[in-house]
Amino acid sequence: MAWFDISLETANKLYLWGWRGSLLGASLTALSVIFLMWGTRVRDHDAERQFADLNFEAGRARERASKLEERAAAFEKEAAQARLETERLREQMAWRRLTPKQGEILSAAIRKTGLKPVIFVTTTDPEASSLRDDFVAVLRAAGDMDPHWSVGLAGGSFAGLAISGPQQEKEALGLAFNEAELSIADGGNSDKLTIIIGARPPINP
Questions:
Q1: Residue 1 lies in a domain
Q2: SS3 of 19, please?
Q3: In 3-state terms, the chain is what percent helix, strand and coil (to 5)?
Q4: Which of the listed residues 38, 71, 94 is the one where a domain comes to its end?
Q5: How far apart are CA 193 and CA 186, in angstroms?
Q6: pLDDT at residue 87 above 70?
Q7: What are phi and psi of 201, to 5 degrees?
Q8: Which of 89, 98, 123, 182 stands the most exposed, by the fewest C-beta atoms within 10 Å?
């Protein structure tokens, strides 16, 4: 007997089970689609939340970076000001000294003109005394083996360098000072040509 040679009753039962299976399959498919849509929505929502969190953290990181840049710029500005202040203090504390070039210019001029200036120091502070020693070396280099110098009262009010003496000799020595790029003041007229060394002039801040 062929496999499809069944009774009507059996065929009806098979049809009923087939219909039930179709309904069950359709229900399972529909339920699966619902689960898929539901799961996809939850996953998308979680991804959106994570993306929002990442954007928020990135924004905070940018804000922190901006603040760090501002602090770094402020520190750099303070460091630059500190360097300027340090350099200003160094200039104020530095002792005046004659450079070798300045010494050569002065000794050559004194040797050429035959001038014999006296060195007069208006203060006894070590800085002015050190500069006096430089001028003594210049006079010796110019041929004056026994240069004369004297010291005034400590705390003298004069600051800087000046030349006093006969007008013609004072002008000749002043030209040498100008050539050596040394700032010099007019110390007035006197019988003896004199290089006056005062205290170190204050440096304006």
A1: no
A2: helix
A3: 65, 10, 30
A4: 94
A5: 12
A6: no
A7: -65, 145
A8: 89
Residues 71 and 54 reside in one and the same domain:
yes
**What confidence tier does 168 reach under pLDDT thresholds 50, 70, 90?**
very high
- Name the DSSP letter for residue 151: E
Higher pLDDT, 57 or 106: 106
Same domain, 120 and 76: no
Q: Which pLDDT tens digit goes with each residue over 44-53? A: 777 777 777 7
Region class of 130: left (phi > 0), else alpha (psi between -120 and 50), else beta: alpha
Maximum Cα–Cα distance across the chain: 159
- Single out the residue of 128, 109, 114, 119 nearest to residue 177, CA to CA: 109
Question: Domain of 66?
Answer: 7-94
Q: What are phi and psi of 185, to 5 degrees?
A: -105, 160
* Per-residue pLDDT tens digits for 118-131: 999 988 888 999 99
Residue 1 DSSP class: -
- How many domains does the structure of the chain reveal? 2
In a domain, residue 80? The reply is yes
Assess if residue 78 is contained within a domain: yes
